[in-house]
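Friendly challenge for the regulars: who can give me the structure tokens for this chain first? No prize, just bragging rights.
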Amino acid sequence: MRIAVVQFPGSNCERETMLAVKRAGMEPVEFLWNESREKLYAMDGYIIVGGFSYEDRSRAGIIAALDPVMLELKAQSEKGKPILGICNGAQILVETGLVPGLENNKLGMALTENKRIAHGKILGTGYYNAWVNMRLTDEYQRNAFTRYLTAQDILHVPVAHGEGRFVMTTAMWQEIEQQGLHVFRYCDAEGKIIDHFPVNPNGSLGNTAAIANKAGNVMAMMPHPERTVNGDPIFQSIRDYITEGRTEHTVPLYYYPRRTGLPSYQKPEYAHECIIELVIADNQALTVQNTLRQIGIPVTVKRQIHWEVHCDSAAVLAEIKKTGVLYNERKETEVVPKKMLSTAFLVRAHEDVIGQQKRQTLQDHFSIQGVNAIQHGVLWHFSSETGNIADLIEKILHTNIISNPYAHDCYQYT
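First reply, four minutes later:
Bragging rights claimed.
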């Protein structure tokens, strides 16, 4: 019984995963993203390991999701073979649409930046590493990963991620709940589902730790069951699922995403824009550029950080810039906004926890008053040597490489 342990550049959990596969009595087979896809044909199951594929450039999981090898994993999933994505692997599965499994694997949700809030204060964003408890949802879907567990079993496992918060539309969430596809949920030591930090380590909707597709053979899980024997029942369940040879053929979920128009960015009258560029090589922009070129979209990409600051006066703005909270002068510089020669898009997180945290820092640590709001965003610029950039923009947006509509707002920027 052979399990492919799938790795991309930046993956770092292959050893723990292989040991967990061996403990369950299966044979792990290392598979690198650039190997021949034919090697995957003979595998009985697949685990996309955790880590930071492509350094989480643009956002976690999206670059690997666009790799051709994921087309083969999609094909294998349709044969009923089990696929488990752990942490970064979960992010990749969500970005490919294999989870939750809509028609034609359309994007149906997002795993976005952590949100740690208690008593109205932002305790932190980004990477968080701790031990947590999780258990099966009361009305969980019985699938390839649950055969050795019940809702009374509490698993004590580690989490280690920066973008682990499941978000989606209300309609999508209702169907997930009805089907029991939010298979695992964060809980306390007694199994109670308490929706605040630290029980819910990242602010995930419904304390969700893992979501499966309707067929039950593909699951995206943020905690790391491979790093502890406490998670072995999940791998033993995969073994028994393969042994039984059962294949569940089900129709996709009913939810169908609707695309909306792309609004233009309008700076509020009393707001100030602060646009920041790296003075060193921008690897994020280069990775997005190379990925687009590899899939047949020949563009040049530039990236900038965009701050929209609402404050009482220019003097307050100058005081804010001196703190170094918005940018680091040793590697970043502020540039003057000018008429764009490229096609640009401004991407902002729906909740913009980063902007909220910056405002809180300015008030609490620097005692700067008169800061009414701060919004954080990323400006993506696209140009083409052939001059036909308008023909390429729809293709670029269709990849979702710069934004996930369930986590971000995207604006045309002129």
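The longest strand covers residues 371-383. The radius of gyration is 22 Å. Your move, everyone else.
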